[in-house]
Automatic annotation (TrEMBL), chain A:
Its main location: membrane. It holds the Pfam family BPD_transp_2. CDD domains: TM_PBP1_transp_AraH_like. The chain crosses the membrane at residues 7-25, 37-58, 65-83, 89-109, 121-143, 149-172, 203-225, 231-250, 257-276, 282-301. It comes from the Bacteria. One of its GO terms (cellular component) is plasma membrane. It is a multi-pass membrane protein. The lineage of its organism: Bacteria, Pseudomonadati, Pseudomonadota, Alphaproteobacteria, Rhodobacterales. It is found in: Cell membrane. InterPro entries: ABC_transp_permease. It comes from Cypionkella aquatica. This is ABC transporter permease.
TrEMBL record, chain B:
Residues 1-240 form the ABC transporter domain. It comes from the Bacteria. CDD domains: ABC_Carb_Monos_II. This is ABC transporter. GO terms for molecular function: ATP binding; ATP hydrolysis activity. It holds the Pfam family ABC_tran. Keywords: ATP-binding, Nucleotide-binding, Repeat, Sugar transport, Transport.
TrEMBL record, chain C:
PANTHER family: ABC TRANSPORTER PERMEASE PROTEIN YPHD-RELATED-RELATED. The chain crosses the membrane at residues 12-35, 41-64, 94-114, 121-141, 167-187, 216-238, 250-267, 272-291, 297-315. GO terms for cellular component: plasma membrane. Its main location: membrane. The lineage of its organism: Bacteria, Pseudomonadati, Pseudomonadota, Alphaproteobacteria, Rhodobacterales. It is a multi-pass membrane protein. It comes from Cypionkella aquatica. This is ABC transporter permease.
Length: 311, 241, 324
């Protein structure tokens, strides 16, 4: 517990402070009856942050900047192609389709980054541009509506997708894969010598990121109740910021989905609080940047003092 | 010129360990021996100002408390791990040689390729570096020749005290003999050399004196006829010979 | 061993030559497929657009050789663009405007570099965070509506229709050529340049070779921001009015130009000539696709696909096993 708190300490501290401030400033919005809606509002960012995490954990410059565009594409495919054009409305078709699109793109990114060995940021930048164009081709302008069950996932049922992801990640942490992922992320050469399938593990991390990005795309679709080709890409950088805020090391091998989620909630609460103050989005932007830099600085100082007290 | 002397007074290598005091003079080759991790590495790094040394080290009265002090006083340290702390793998042999002393080749604002080349050729001759072309990457050289380039980099700084951390590790026998001759030459010219070696034979062949470390303290200081394999090993294991 | 290493050095030159060859081939294809592709005006337009990208990419090249990355470039471009217009509009002398803008940019960059190196933070996060702060502050200052414009001299300096003495190109083009020579000299022939490569190639060995990592990171990121600011001011002359998001396309384009030009993101390798080749390739691709009447969406997709293709061909990293 102390270990978890140590890594996420700053993110949790901000979380508590922001939560209290929000409760005081805006009790109506934060009343228990509204929690579903609130979570639905935060869900796309949380989902994007979760999606960004596995590849970062896998180390050696691992990063996926195509997470945002994947969300946009999933939204376009599910609403425009499957729901409106093909008339498929069942969650048991649309959800698997969304995850499959994500997995396929993740597999492509993974192939480029681990087999062809293009630097991850460049490989996923290529994907970013391809997907952005593809989404605009499928869906030149926003279109709607989304099926009612999906819109409900931004309201009362918003905990469902996030809860399932949490449960699955919890289970995954109890398989050898998690240990291998962290080993590869902290020292791939040592992991390789110890017999860990390094390339496969990294590849799977990209697939996992893709699947989670697919889920995040569904949450985004649920929230806006339609498909918009332009909003997805905005999530990429802010999601990576959330991940760093949540104590996940960009060097790999340290942190987890919980931290990323806390980081994302922090950003959401900050947004919510400043909106309650009626502050302009410009100030919001400065606040994001400041919190992000302050967080990584404090985490680094904490790591440093921890190291010193051990030595 | 007054005789060169580096003094070490009451240097503790680890909290609680007995303090080390000794003196190293110009013209001397001092060996450091001990089982791995018994303090000889910390001692050598302390002389280079790379470890906190409680201001216990001075050269001609000038304190060597930091790496910068060492740099100012021409105390030059050559690290052990060539690959992680020695060579710059993407760079040429010339770059690897000149990188610590780029100012010497500057004519006006720019580095003169000719001056740099001439400086390198001198050392190449002296150290018998076997290299295809000075513009080839450093990784094209054998381990022994890489080590010679690194020594040339260090020697280009005109050291008064040269601190060598296991300089013949992974180096072939022929190269070792070249290096031994070089070290003796340097000492004869008045330089003080401190050589940490994991091979006792090497210390016996090369050094005038050996400091044997055990439990982060100086277990024995042996010189002259008493410097034999059995005495050094006995000191390393904490036994009387 | 000897052979593979020799090939390694040569492969960097091969990449740069390859990138130039790709640019030439693309230009040939454009000339064959699109009427007027090689018309003087079209070439001038391409040169100006490429030069602006080249200026913005100088900093990214330096920072990537160091083994870092600078995501604050687009934000600093926007900052310089807006602040320069605003101050000039308030009646400041333009030389003073430049001093203030470059000075502030240098401070922003120095902060990025010092913080990243000093605390061992990933520069991606630091530069992103600092970039967001800078952009937010500019927006607050201008209340989102920047005003002012560029002095006529700057507009003429970058104008596609401009000329420089007898040359049928604006002064920007010869200026960039001179700047390129200077950058190459600094990288190849000064202690700073050699230390930059050394530090990028093996940070662990640098301190023993009397290289001060903190100083080099601070100076290099400061330089990166100054060149970004320069691009921002030039863009002000190019578009005529201030726009805070003018730098956004440069976020990924500078990285793409550096990588297509054969500079590896792992540090210690690369050259600005390579980046120039990368800039030409990117500009040709863009012009070609637009000339072929692709929709903007299709242009973007094709752009991404071609970057991936090029980098797969010659931008591959070594297998991690070969570093064991």
């Amino acid at each position: 517990m102390t270990r978890i708190f140590g890594r996420y300490g700053f993110a949790i501290a901000i979380l508590v402070v922001l939560l209290i401030a929000n409760l005081v400033m805006n009790p109506a919005r934060f009343a228990p009856g509204n929690w579903g809606t609130l979570l639905g509002l935060a869900a796309p960012l949380i989902g994007a942050a979760l999606a960004s995490t596995p590849v970062i954990l896998a180390g050696r410059g691992g990063i996926d900047i195509s997470v945002g565009p994947v969300m946009g594409l999933v939204s376009a495919v599910v609403i425009k192609v499957l729901y409106l054009d093909a008339g498929l409305a069942s969650p048991f078709i649309l959800w698997p389709a969304a995850l499959l699109v994500g997995a396929a793109i993740g597999a492509f990114n993974g192939f480029m980054a681990t087999v062809v060995r293009v630097q991850p940021i460049v490989a996923t930048l290529g994907t970013y541009l391809i997907l952005g164009g593809l989404t605009l081709t499928i869906l030149p302008a926003p279109i709607g509506p989304a099926p009612d069950w999906l819109k409900a996932m931004a309201g009362a049922w918003s905990f469902l997708p996030l809860g399932i992801i949490a449960a699955l990640w919890w289970a995954l942490c109890r398989t050898p894969f998690h240990g291998q992922l962290m080993a590869v992320g902290s020292d791939d050469r040592a992991a390789y010598t110890a017999g860990v399938p390094v390339t496969l593990t990294r590849f799977l991390a990209y697939v996992l990121t893709g699947v989670l990005a697919g889920a995040a795309g569904m949450m985004l679709t649920a929230l806006i109740g339609s498909a918009d080709p332009k909003v997805g890409a905005n999530y990429t950088l802010i999601a990576i910021a959330a991940v760093a805020l949540g104590g996940v090391s960009l060097a790999g091998g340290r942190g987890g989905l919980l931290g990323a989620a806390i980081g994302a909630v922090d950003i959401f609460l900050l947004q919510s609080l400043l909106t309650a103050f009626n502050v302009s989005t410009y100030v919001l932007q400065v606040a994001y940047g400041t919190i992000l830099v302050a967080a990584v600085v404090l985490i680094a100082l904490q790591d440093r003092s921890a190291k010193r007290s051990h030595a | 010129m007054p005789d060169l002397s580096m003094r070490i007074r009451d240097l503790t290598l680890r909290p609680g360990a007995a303090a080390v005091s000794t003196q190293i003079s110009g013209g001397e080759i001092v060996g450091l021996a001990g089982l791995d991790g018994h303090g000889q590495d910390v001692f050598l790094r302390s002389l280079a100002g790379l470890e906190r040394n409680q201001a216990a080290v001075d050269l001609q009265g000038n304190s060597i408390a930091s790496f910068r002090d060492a740099e100012k006083n021409a105390v030059v340290y050559v690290p052990r791990d060539r690959r992680s702390t020695g060579i710059f793998p993407g760079l040429s042999i010339l770059d690897n040689f000149a990188i610590a002393t780029p100012g010497r080749d500057r004519r006006g604002l720019l580095i003169s390729a000719k001056a740099r080349r001439a400086r390198y050729e001198d050392w190449k001759e002296r150290l018998q570096i076997k290299a295809p072309s000075p513009d080839a990457p450093i990784t094209a050289l054998s381990g022994g020749n890489q080590q010679k380039v690194l020594l040339a980099r260090a020697l280009a700084r005109d050291p008064k005290v040269l601190l060598l951390n296991d300089p013949t590790r992974g180096v072939d026998v022929a190269t070792r003999l070249v290096l031994y001759d070089l070290f003796r030459d340097l000492a004869a010219q008045g330089m003080a050399l401190v050589i940490l070696s994991s091979e006792i034979e090497e210390i016996l062949v090369l050094c005038n004196r050996v400091l044997v470390f055990r439990d982060h303290a100086l277990a024995a200081e042996i010189s002259g006829a008493a410097m034999r394999t059995d005495t050094v090993i006995a000191a390393m294991f904490g036994r009387q010979a | 061993m000897t052979l593979t290493s020799a090939l390694q050095l040569d492969s960097i030159k091969a990449r740069v030559i390859g990138a130039f060859a790709v640019a030439v081939v693309l230009h040939g294809a454009g000339t064959a497929l699109i009427p007027g592709y090689s018309a003087p005006f079209a070439i001038r337009a391409m040169l100006v657009i490429a030069s602006l990208l080249a200026v913005a990419s100088i900093g990214q090249t330096l920072v990537v050789i160091l083994g870092g990355i600078d995501l604050s470039i687009p934000f600093v471009i926007g900052f310089a663009n807006v602040v320069a217009a605003q101050l000039y509009g308030q009646g400041w002398h333009f030389a003073l405007v430049c001093v203030v803008v470059f000075g502030l940019a240098a401070l922003i960059g120095a902060f990025n570099g010092a913080l990243s190196r000093g605390l061992n933070l990933h520069p991606l996060i630091v530069t992103l965070g600092v970039g967001m702060i800078v952009q937010g502050l500019v927006l607050i200052w201008t209340k989102g509506f920047p005003s002012g414009s560029a002095p006529k001299a700057v507009s003429a300096f970058v104008s596609i229709g401009g000329s420089f003495g007898p040359l049928p190109v604006p002064a920007l083009i010869p200026a960039l050529l001179i700047l390129t020579v200077l950058i190459v000299l600094v990288l190849e022939r000064t202690p700073y340049g050699r230390r930059l490569y050394a530090l990028g190639s093996n940070p662990g060995a640098a301190p023993y070779a009397l290289i001060n990592p903190l100083r080099i990171w601070t100076a290099t990121f400061a330089a990166s921001s100054v060149f970004a600011a320069m691009a921002g001011i030039l863009l002000l002359g190019f578009t005529g009015s201030a726009y805070g998001d003018v730098g956004q396309p440069y976020l990924f384009q500078t990285i793409a130009a550096v990588v297509v030009g054969g500079t590896a993101l792992v540090g210690g390798r690369g050259s600005f000539i390579g980046t120039i080749a990368g800039v030409l390739v990117l500009t040709e691709i863009n012009t070609l696709l637009i000339g072929l009447n692709f929709s903007p969406a299709a242009v973007q997709s094709a752009f991404g696909a071609i970057i991936l293709l090029l980098v797969s061909l010659y931008g591959r990293e070594r297998h991690f096993r070969s570093t064991v």
